[in-house]
Amino acid sequence: MKHLRRLVALAAVTVLVVGFSVRALADEGFWPFNTVPKAAIKQALGFEPADAWLQHLQLSAIRFGGASGSFISPDGLILTNHHVGLRTIQRLSTPEQDFVKNGFYAKMLADELKAPDLELTVLQNIEDVTTQVNAAVNPGMSSAEGFAARRAAIAAIEKTSQEKTGLKSEIVTLYQGALYHLYRYKTYTDVRLVFAPEFDTAFFGGDPDNFTYPRYCLDITFFRVYENDKPARIEHYLPWSLNGANDREPVFVAGHPGATQRLNTVAHLEYLRDTGLPWSLTLLERRQAALKTYGERGAEEERQAKDELFSIENSLKSLRGQIAGLKDAALMDKKRKTEDRLRQAIAADAVRQKQFAGAWDAVAGARRTFASYYKDQSLLEGAAGFNSRYFSVARTIVRLAAERAKSEAQRLPEYGDARLASLERQLYSPAPIYPALEKAKLTDSLSFMAAELGASHPMVAKVLGGKTPEARAAELVDGTKLGEVEARKTLVAGGAQAVDASTDPMILLARAVDEASRTVRKRYEDEIASVERDAYAHIAQAVFAVQGTSAYPDATSTLRLSFGAVQGYQENGRAIPPFTDFAGLYARATKFNNAPPYQLAERWVAKKTGLKLDTPFDFVATLDIVGGNSGSPVVNRSAEIVGVIFDGNIQSLPGYFIYDAAVNRAVAVDSRGILEALRAVYGADRLVGEITGARRPGPAR
Q1: Is residue 406 a contact partner of residue 412, using CB atoms and an 8 Å limit?
Q2: Is 91 left (phi over 0), alpha (psi -120 to 50) or beta?
């Protein structure tokens, strides 16, 4: 079989990198399912995915919040990562039953636990609506006017689609404004937990091993979707491979990679390197410190903060890797050269020069402007100064009352009719909120805002009201009733009149900062988002004009196909093999004296003799992935599950900006390791039987 990473020798497969199209390796790219380069795959692999194969994979893949998952049985069984399901596992836990610490397994169907607020979606179809969206923009409109006109058109199209089809409808912006595609989704809201290993098993090696390889993590969780209180009947699901994948074997991943910036101009990347990402790093480091301090109060406090702390620490390591990539002179030099070549090609044609030449300067100007008020945008509209679930609820209620009184075209996008069902599902979530934790988070964020904007800043003075951040946070948290779902429903049902009359301190805070928050949001949309939307659309069109239209767009947290091969790599002159096994897990635990974060759960110690220690556990592949791909199924040419993505190596972190096939690797849990662990360690016979197709899940009792 031909190696997947051979060059795809055809001009039709190109990749947008900083506004210029370059010849791509076969294992590079986030391909929308309606533009998969089938001919290129056939040339590289000797296998051309048929339309039916692609549709089957598309309908088996699941958007799991900001991550991914897949159906693996006809009875609605879902595979994703433990860290993707962690928030739900945490919310289902109690001080008496800590499923994060101890794991969970439903021995019977009736034991499966209903998640409080999950909404999973499956992409049904895609429609190009670029013409309809752009038709709303009249000649002579400014960038801001065009932005508003497109937004109104998008809201109308989404609403009409949802009313006509009954499917959740979202318009996705591709190539940062060159194309608009309508994605329609089937939605599942009754989702139940079936199995989760212990946190220490899922995240063996902890933060030191995060984004590294070799790895020894059982980062998996199984859920099930229900309809009418019964397991959903699923037509499209991925069968389990008992044989896994071999070294150099081609593999595919269907997942939802988060926003990438491979199309970004050099000026935009320099802003991210010097300003945007360092700010995010500072913000998350403060939150990390606050959560650690809170967790040190006791075991229950540590439990309450665990999932949020894990998420932040994961983001911190990713951010540091991204910043390091952008500080790499060689990477930035590649970006400058590709940008220069495209601009030179445009300058050589008078018509194209007139059409496109100003786009790069427009982005640079927008980023210079934003650098003067990005803190205000983040702290106010981004709510970084009000880090509390109570405040999030309050803002949603305040804005929902205001936005519902407007026409569809005038609303903020998140309050459009097509999105209200999802918004209300989150708003009325019965998931527990811990007041002491909220006080700690809010105290820290208020302190951060005061430090960054200054104590004399009008908004700081208005928010604190002469009190210390700690005293103000206590006043807000102790006084609010928004922890009660019925209190939220009563306010929403009462509309603007009830919100205006409310004396709840969190509602009062949300109202007090709303005008300033909306103002900075409007400024950002008028001066930055709209300008860059037009500029990047022109840059994409310039690429199309110079080298054709076959190119993958930046990732947008929507379903994409990536393909590559199982393959190790070289690191500091050392060969890194593609697979790890259970023997390596026990050896690594022994190396660190079974001390955190390398401790083995008691059942893993007790069950060692029953394990086949040479079973493949984790593996790496050249698959092009970023955050959001977590939980994505890895499949072979028969569309069988051979693994599930859970991480990338440290070299993959600059992948938000550029792909390096030599060392960029996706890390997955092997299908063989999952089955062996379920069988030999957890005794999960019911689950193993369903995964392998040997038996159905069984009746509810």
Answers
A1: no
A2: alpha
